[in-house]
Structures are given as C-alpha cells and as structure tokens.
Amino acid sequence: MLFFSRNQKPAGPPEFLIVGLGNPGKKYALTRHNAGFLFAELLADRENVKINKIRFKSVTANVTLNGHNCLLMQPQTFMNNSGEAVREAAKFYKIPPERILVVFDDISLPCGKLRIRRKGSDGGHNGIKSIIYQLNSDQFPRIKLGIGDKPHPDYALMDWVLSTFKKEELPLLKEAAEKACDAAALIVGGDIDEAMNRFNS
Fold it and tell me: What's the pLDDT tens digit per position in 101-148?
C-alpha cells in the first residue's frame, strides 16, 4: 500500500520537517555521507515535486505526505553544521523536535538496510550531533540508511563516508531509500511503531 497522494498541493504552513542529510556540490553527489540527500531526491521524485526553493540554508520543497504538509529539506551548510538549517526552519514554523524527521547515513548497518528510531544520541554522526546541539533536544525521530562499515579498521572514517558507492551497492541503497519513503509517510501519519515493526533491519 502506498501512503502518497501525488496530486495534492500542500495547504498552509508545514506541520513536519523531513530532513535528508548530506553535503552540497556535485563532487559529493554519490558519496556514502549523502544517503540522506539521495532519500530526499527519491521522495521528491515519487511525489512529483522539485527540491529547488532556497530557504533556511537549504534547498527545499513542500510536499503533502499521508495528508500532512511537510517541508522537505536538504541543508546546504555541509554535514557538520546541519543543525543550523534545521533550527532556522523549526523556529520559523514553530515545529517541535518530535515533528522533525531526519534521514541520514549509518556505517553500522549494511548497505540496503535501514533502522528507525524515535529519538536518541548522535551515535558519533556529526550531522545528528549538530542538530541535537542546535535544537537542544534529541527527541526527534530518525531513519538511518545503511552505508556499510569501513573495509578495515585502519581506514579513516572521513575517507570512507566520503567515498562513492560501488555500482552494485546503488540498487541496494535505492531499495532502502524506497522503504524509507514509505516509513516516512507512516511516521508523519503518527504510526512510528508500525514503521519500526515493518522496516527495522
């Protein structure tokens, strides 16, 4: 079952923020750290909208998801300062952390897997660390997209997350991002428990 209503136009201010994390610029486009950006692009494509409006230090699109008006965001601050963009949008629209869904990469999950959490620590992820700091809260839901762990312990983490996906990994990532889109619709609709039951790896 799909939870999308492609022909609805958003009415009124956004009720939710849906934030895909990544780094701006072509050289980062298919890097592991940009899994959240890739999710946002897939969701926009499914909903037939363009992420092209510049505001809140982000490129954004308004999208109606499961009957709710959402602001879809790709922060352009670079990963480590993602919280600045999220804080600006949340403050402007008076959106509490519980209605801010963040989608990002996770090295602890194999490529193609995802995990949904209601809240939690940053887990060593600098983008999440920035959001927690700027919101002064860790009470926001998140979807983690697996990008696979470093190939060996001596591999520098920064080099790994900024490496590009292998050709054979891209279909796995797309499959996980498709599931994340469906999970996002459930979460926005208030069914995070169902989303976790259906999609957690």
Answer: 999 999 999 999 999 999 999 998 999 999 999 999 999 999 999 999
Does the annotation count 68 as an active-site position? Answer: no
Q: How far is it, in rounded angstroms, from Cα 35 to Cα 177?
A: 8
Helix, strand, coil shares, percent, the chain, to 5:
40, 20, 40
Cross-strand partners of 142:
102, 117
Q: Determine, yes or no, domain membership for 8.
A: no
Question: How many structural domains are present in the chain?
Answer: 1
In whole angstroms, what is the distance from residue 188 CA to residue 201 CA? 20
Going by pLDDT thresholds of 50, 70 and 90, the confidence category of residue 151 is confident
- Burial class of residue 124, CB neighbours in 10 A (0-12, 13-18, 19+): exposed
Contacts 24+ apart (CB under 8 A), 171-174: 172/111, 172/112, 173/35, 173/38, 173/111, 173/112, 173/145, 173/147, 174/38, 174/42
Q: Which of 33, 68, 125, 152 is catalytic?
A: 33
pTM: 0.92
> In this structure, what token pair is assigned to residue 117?
């959490």
CB count within 10 Å of CB 117 equals 17
Q: What is the CATH number of the domain that holds 24?
A: 3.40.50.1470
